[in-house]
Amino acid sequence: QVHLVESGGGSVQPGGSLTLSCAASGIHYRGSCLGWFRQAPGKEREAVAVSDSTGKTTYADSMRGRFTIAQDNYKTNITLRMTNLNVEDTAMYYCAADNRWGLCSLASDAYAYWGQGTQVTVSS
Question: How do residues 30-43 score in pLDDT, each as one tens digit?
C-alpha cells in the first residue's frame, strides 16, 4: 500500500526559497512515477514536476527553471526545491505517486495515490 506524507511548507517572502519533502512508502523500485502538483484557491490542480523510477524528470513548462524535483534511490523521499518564489506560487502542494511502467504523465488523473498536502504561502 502506498502512503505519502508531505512536509516543509510554510510562509516565505517573494524571492525566497523552500524545499518540500514527501515521505513515501510502498513505491515500486522499478516501474513507478512520483510527482508534485499544486492547487491554488479557486484554481484547478496543476502539475509542477514528475519523476520516473530511473530519475528521469519532466517539468510543466511554467515551472521549469525555478523548481527541482528529486528522489532518493530507495523511493522513500521525494523533494521539491523551489527558488525565487512569487505570490503566484501560493498554493497547496501535493505529492503524488503511481506504481506503473511507461512514461510519467503530468496529468493529475494518472496518479492513484496522493498525500494530504502542505501549504506554501508567498507574501510580503
Answer: 889 999 999 999 99
